[in-house]
From TrEMBL:
It holds the Pfam family Ferrochelatase. It comes from Paenibacillus typhae. Involved in coproporphyrin-dependent heme b biosynthesis. Catalyzes the insertion of ferrous iron into coproporphyrin III to form Fe-coproporphyrin III. GO terms for cellular component: cytoplasm. The lineage of its organism: Bacteria, Bacillati, Bacillota, Bacilli, Bacillales. Belongs to the ferrochelatase family. GO terms for molecular function: ferrochelatase activity; metal ion binding. Its EC number is 4.99.1.9. Fe-coproporphyrin III binds at Y12, R29, R45, Y46, Y125. Its main location: cytoplasm. The gene is cpfC. This is Coproporphyrin III ferrochelatase.
């Protein structure tokens, strides 16, 4: 008999419509509704992005489908069934666990569509899934990070090299392009917690730099939240301003903390950073997002299988 293993694929989540933005934003802010001004500003950002208003939903759907296919491609005596669990939108993480219960799943693996661990990001996804699974009697194992998986480093390196080729075609020397690796900023207080987020992001950046032979690079943060406490910096916009002062002309953005096209890539980089680049007379390009690239699906299926092997 084929054993069924559930795979809870967790992702940030996005609203289903512009009317849903307020509830989504309130959820992100842990129940505190945004002001009318904050809400308008967020709705405006969604309306401005290219590729649809909420591309993250479709991208996550495709990633979940593609992962299920990749996991079952080889056949064998285990059937993997993927369920979606979103952090801030429906189906919520808890809904995904309940769906597994309804389908008679007893064993499952949880994985987040974000390669780097922070107690404030992946840690909170896992905590919620674990609590729900325990309450429902499902045994679960969790993938915490996969930031140095060789296939991940490989596919991101290919993305970087492809854009450096494009710079070269337009006359720029490869070595003159400053590569800016970036990820979502988090409140600075994670540093006092001994959180691995920063080190993992630097490790991915270093591995890609080594594989591509890039020496002209730095790590910078992006998309810091709009809250009163200090967030990790420097922000990519400040970094670009500094680079312009030091005569840098070409910049390649490599948002390695993200795996999909969504607001933080399509707005914060493609619109906001791109507008600043024009102002500063910098030439800015961005690496393609992974989305459901088979190489990324192969990374995910590898780490999920490894965890499935630890299920008792
Ligand atoms: O396309 C979309 O609809 C969703 C884009 C989106 C992604 C995303 C990823 C991460 N976030 C992380 C941390 C925080 C923290 C706060 C926070 C706030 C927001 C807001 C929006 C938003 N995030 Fe996000 N994030 C995305 C969108 N994020 C919108 C609210 C408005 C704003 O501040 O810009 C602050 C919460 C608070 O108020 O306390 C913290 C992290 C990631 C990357 C890992 C992951 O995907 O989970 C970390 C995509």
């Amino acid at each position: 008999m084929t054993a069924k293993i559930g795979v809870l694929v967790m992702s940030y989540g996005t609203p289903e419509s512009l009317d849903g933005v307020e509830a989504y934003y309130t959820h992100i802010r842990r129940g505190h509704a945004p002001t009318a001004e904050q809400l308008k500003e967020l709705k405006d950002r969604y309306e401005a992005i290219v590729g649809g208003v909420f591309p993250l939903r479709e991208n996550t759907n495709r990633q979940v489908e593609a992962l299920q296919e990749a996991l079952n491609k080889a056949g064998g005596d285990v059937e993997y069934v993927c369920y979606q669990g979103l952090k801030h939108a429906k189906p919520f993480i808890e809904d995904g666990v309940e769906e597994m219960v309804r389908d008679g799943i007893h064993h499952a693996v949880g994985v987040v569509l974000a390669p780097h661990y922070s107690v404030m990001s992946v840690g909170t996804y896992i905590k919620r899934a674990k609590e729900k699974a325990e309450a429902c009697g499902i045994t679960m194992e969790f993938v915490e990070s996969y930031h140095l998986h060789p296939e991940l480093v490989d596919v991101l390196s290919r993305r970087v090299s492809a854009k450096l080729d494009q710079f070269e075609e337009t006359g720029a020397a490869r070595g003159d392009v400053r590569v800016l690796f970036s990820a979502h900023s988090l409140p600075e207080r994670i540093l006092a917690m001994g959180d691995p987020y920063v080190d993992q992001l630097l490790a991915t950046s270093e591995a890609i730099a080594e594989q591509t032979g890039v020496t002209n690079w730095q790590f910078t943060w992006q998309s810091a939240g709009r809250t009163a406490e200090p967030w990790l910096g420097p922000d990519i916009l400040d970094t670009m301003r500094e680079l312009a002062k030091s005569e840098v002309k070409y910049v390649l953005s490599a948002p390695i903390g993200f795996v999909s096209d969504h607001l933080e890539v399509l707005y914060d980089l493609d619109i906001e950073a791109q507008a600043l680049a024009s102002e500063l007379d910098l030439r800015l390009m961005r690496i393609e997002s992974l989305n459901s690239d088979p190489a990324y699906m192969s990374v995910l299926s590898d780490v999920v299988r490894a965890k499935a092997g630890q299920l008792k």
